[in-house]
Amino acid sequence: MTSKRPKFSNLALIEESDVEYDLSIFALGFESRAVNLLPSVAKRTRALLALGFDHGRELAYEENKRAFSDASVRVEDGLSDREFEEVLRGHLKALDGESHRMVFVDVSCFSRFRLASIVHELFSLSQSLGAGLTIDFAYSLAKFEKPDSIRQPNTVVGPAHRAFAGWSQGGYSSTAAVLGLGYEQDQALGVVEFLQAGEVWAFTPKSPVVEYKAEVDKANDLLLSEIPPNRVLEYDVCAPTSVLATLESVVRGLGDGHSVVLVPFGPKIFVLCSLIVAAMRNEIAVWRVSQGTAIKPSDRAASHVQVGLRVAFPPQDGSSSISSNLGSQQS
């Protein structure tokens, strides 16, 4: 995947922006936060799209579906992952390159596979839109809920998407694992053992929802005790441009001697940053690790915290582009 390097900026509060979007994309799932950002963009988007799953029609699902329908959102429901990619690609192809295009994506409730597919398709789209493309990614941080203390084995371990399997193409004898830590009990440790990683780096989230920190530390205490302190980096959940810069710096330093695999547990904003870094560096892999069907569905309500990242691809033909500062706070 090759593309002009985009410019990045942290978004200001989504509801205070006056940007008009050609397309806004949401996940239709069972978490109530799935519709949290909808009112902020519904009236200033030409086409609204909610993409559903072929499972998980429980908890807040029906209420979310009604909310999308009431807002005149086009709902594509019951999609397998393969169908999701086909539908997404079809809607993105409808964006012609005659003028600069603006796309909004709420990443809060997409699975890692689907978020990887979105990043891959949008980076690919940027190559065909001569007048340029800007994507505003947004994330509703969930209210704190104490994690499930029952440990389940990882049943899904591998690349988040075929486009992010880059590490397997290298000829290095050593693998470096770069982890984003969440409060999934010992899952990060399990994937380090699976990879037999020769070098391990860990990113721990600093969140405005302060209750998360103690649980993240507790869930990863054994792993953290085995990693040198200078390889444990704290990142600000609300500053994705800083996360991108630090993550890319670490990956660049490791890339000369290792096959590098990013394993983003924790907040979706770190998942997004990992995918963007890998999209710009083809040799980097992004893995997903999951307990599969053993995961117990739980509703995640939105907190007061919203995080946004603008990814602006410049025009390819020298035509004028919108300002990267429009509706955002420059990093």
In short:
The chain is of the alpha/beta class. Helix content is 29%, strand content 25%.
Structure description:
By secondary structure, the protein is of the alpha/beta class. The protein folds into 2 domains: 158 residues, 3-Layer(aba) Sandwich (Rossmann fold); 139 residues, Rossmann fold, CATH 3.40.50.11700. It contains 9 helices and 14 strands. The strands form 2 sheets. The chain has an 8-stranded mixed β-sheet with strand order 4-3-2-5-6-13-1-14, sandwiched between helices. A 6-stranded mixed β-sheet has the order 7-12-11-8-9-10, with helices on both faces. Helix 4 crosses helix 9 and helix 8 packs across helix 9. The longest helix is centred in the C-terminal third of the chain and has 16 residues. The relative contact order is 0.21. The C terminus is likely disordered.
Query: What is the CATH class of the largest domain?
Result: Alpha Beta
Mean pLDDT: 90
Distance between termini?
Answer: 25 Å
**CATH architecture field of the largest domain:** 3-Layer(aba) Sandwich
Can you tell me the residue ranges where pLDDT is under 50 for at least 5 consecutive residues? 319-331
Total count of helical runs of at least 4 residues = 9
Number of strands: 14
Going across the biggest sheet, name each strand in turn: 4-3-2-5-6-13-1-14
Helix/strand order: EEHEHEHEHEEEHEHHEHEHEEE
What summary fits the major beta sheet? 8 strands, mixed
Helix amount: 25-40%
CATH topology of the largest domain: Rossmann fold
The fraction of residues in strands falls at: 25-35%
* Overall domain count: 2
What would you call the structural class? alpha/beta
Which oligomeric form is depicted? single chain
Which term fits the overall shape?
globular
